[in-house]
From TrEMBL:
A GO biological process held by the record: glutathione metabolic process
Organism lineage string: Eukaryota, Metazoa, Porifera, Demospongiae, Heteroscleromorpha
Family statement: Belongs to the GST superfamily.
Residues in GST N-terminal domain copies: 29-111
Protein name according to UniProt: Glutathione S-transferase theta-1
Superkingdom of origin: Eukaryota
GO molecular function annotations of the record: glutathione transferase activity
SUPFAM superfamilies per record: GST C-terminal domain-like, Thioredoxin-like
Length: 227
């Protein structure tokens, strides 16, 4: 693990607290986020961390340079050596959908992200289950877009209803992957086109752009072709 990350984790584990009239140094749990923002599931987790303002230490791993394979300790964090993964203190977790659910519950995030109501939650799990079994690039193929437009969104603003949920984060990052190639995949899909705007507004443009800096950079350098 990088010295920089270890140092950041050390400082995050200490904070000052008032206790019986005195200022004392107390330990608190640190959350480390292992990611590469060129990865769709890593961006989905990054969007939740940013939108929900969850304090964390970022540990970037450049997948294109094989850093996720070379980093000695990363094998202990994530057995598959994929991104994203998190460590909350000594508790480590991989698989983006599991991470998103964990963050909502652990950090007591507002209900809309992943509601406790059994049926509303099941509808979000329905999307996530479907999403997780899509193979790479399938998220933007006609069948998937038809499903999103006519079934998962249908007459709702977001996948879970009136407010944004973790399923929206997973779904939108499939689309933003193609922004690198100047493709928005929205032609003929008016609900998806509107939903993309609504998701950005719900997250906040600043956070959304922060997580997409690497995508914008690839796009602007025309790494995968021009408009
Ligand atoms: N199902 C996993 C997928 C993770 C995944 O496939 N990550 C890719 C980047 S999008 C990765 O780390 N690839 C590197 C590799 O396989 O060597 C999740 O949702 O977290």
């Amino acid at each position: 693990m990088r010295a920089q990350t270890l140092l950041a984790r050390f400082f995050y584990t200490l904070h000052f607290q008032f206790w019986r009239g005195r200022v004392v140094l107390r330990a608190m749990t640190s959350l480390t986020f292992f990611h590469d923002f060129l990865s769709q599931p890593a961006r989905a987790v990054g969007l939740l961390l940013g939108a929900a303002k969850i304090e964390h230490v970022k540990h970037p791993l450049k997948v294109t340079e094989g850093e996720h394979k070379k980093d000695e300790e990363y094998g202990n964090v994530c057995p598959t050596r994929e991104v994203p993964a998190i460590c909350d203190g000594d508790f480590c977790l991989f698989e983006s959908s599991s991470i998103l659910k964990y963050l909502v519950r652990k950090y007591n995030l507002p209900e809309h992200w992943y509601p406790s109501d059994v049926q509303r939650q099941a509808k979000i799990d329905e999307y996530l289950g479907w999403h997780d079994k899509l193979k790479e690039l399938e998220g933007v193929q006609k069948r998937s877009k038809d499903m999103l437009e006519n079934y998962f969104l249908k007459d709702k603003k977001f996948i879970g209803g009136d407010e944004i949920c973790i399923a929206d984060l997973q779904a939108i990052c499939e689309f933003t992957q193609f922004w690198m190639m100047h493709i928005d995949h929205c032609e003929g899909y008016p609900r998806i086109a509107q939903w993309i705007k609504d998701v950005q507004a719900a997250i906040g443009q600043e956070i959304f752009d922060e997580v997409h800096v690497a995508v914008y950079s690839m796009r602007d350098q025309n790494m995968f072709g021009t408009k």
